[in-house]
Amino acid sequence: MVADMPDRVAELAEFQDGVLTRGQVLGHGLTDGVIKARIRAGRWRPLGRGVYLTFTGPPQRGGLLWAAVLQAGHGAVLSHQSAAELHRLNPGPASPIHVTVPQQRRIERIPGVSVHYSRRLDQARHPCLQPPRTRIEETVLDLTEAARTFDEAAGWLCRAVGGRFTTAQHLSAAMVARARLRRREGLMAALSDVGDGAHSLLELRYVKIERAHGLPRATRQAQVSLRGRTVYRDNLYDAYLVVVELDGRAAHPDGARWRDMRRDNAGAAEGLLTLRYGYADATERPCEVAAEVAQVLRARGWPGQPRRCGPGCRIGEDPG
Which tens digits make up the pLDDT trace of 275-285? Predict the structure, then answer.
């Protein structure tokens, strides 16, 4: 791939997934004539203005990311969905590629690249990872800013903390450091619940149901020992031996339902009663869910009473 180049140029091309800029090539002693000759021979090809792929065949994803950030020029970093891809927060490649450059710079349009501008890029940039990218916390907040809905924005918080990419404390500090942040109040409230263990949108919705109807506060992601093994339960009302599990398809695919059933059975053998709810339950019948949970908790000794969440609340009706 790079055997016919000087060692230092070859090493740089290898590091950058086969991509070099004109400035890098000239800076290592090669000439424009060499570049043109290699392009004519089909050994190199342009990936953009002043950016070249130094081997034949299609570029790999890493090469495309390097080409985008190198073409964006001095101080540029990958950001938003592209930084999330590199941090493995995003499940796969996203289009377009996103880069952020310092606010004072203006660059020409780059095909296939969405360019953002930032006044605080020095703080947002990861200090060492390559290709250059925003820190994980900054990436998450960029994605919440770009989200079309609050649920989409809160979902990024859940994914980041639930997937152990960062912590609620680090995200909170990043929020405080930003002078401007869309949905700040709501995201801070959601992040508090995420930090307490609500690691999906469905789990966040259940926290709202619990709070709005005056149910006792469950322990989120509670550790429970069943037959000598430690398992985690979404919501545990320990004093009443009641568990509430939230079954979202992404978190609980069909192949895992047998495992969940075995876990519920093992819990029942040790006195734990498990209630399971899905997305439709939490979104379409939240008051019925609250009534059912309250009924079970009261049967297990809870002395409280659930409350109506509003004029149309159905908490007093029979669940089911």
Answer: 999 999 999 99
